[in-house]
Amino acid sequence: MKTLRTALALLVATWGLAGCLSNEATEVSQDGFTFAVAVTGDTAVARNYHTGRLNFAKLEEAARAAIETASGCAVRTLVKRGEINTFDATLNCAG
After folding, report:
1. 2, 9, 43, 87: least CB-packed within 10 angstroms?
2. Which of 93, 91, 77, 88 is nearest to 35 (CA)?
3. pLDDT (tens digit, 9 = 90+) per residue, 32-71?
4. Which superkingdom heads the taxonomic lineage of this protein's source (predicted)?
5. Could you write out the DSSP letters of every residue in the chain?
């Protein structure tokens, strides 16, 4: 069981690192925040590297708008990861 947990943790860490290092991310500035937005199929990840005190509601709004700009799709769901200023989205792309 411990081996399975370790393998899963390694897989998740590798996936997250691959997203950080991907050249496929598009830089989008929205409402004073800059995001690296990576879109894959009907999902997207937006990362903002701003540090300091933030208004979370404004950051979340800006992340949603940045993802919609980069993807050309409406955001169906938006969830903040445990990581600082990283948002996972599912997209609703018509047509």
Report:
1. 2
2. 88
3. 899 999 999 999 999 998 876 678 889 999 999 999 999 9
4. Bacteria
5. -HHHHHHHHHHHHHHHHHHHH-TT-EEEEETTEEEEEEEETTEEEEEE---S---HHHHHHHHHHHHHHHHSSEEEEEEE-SSTTEEEEEEE---
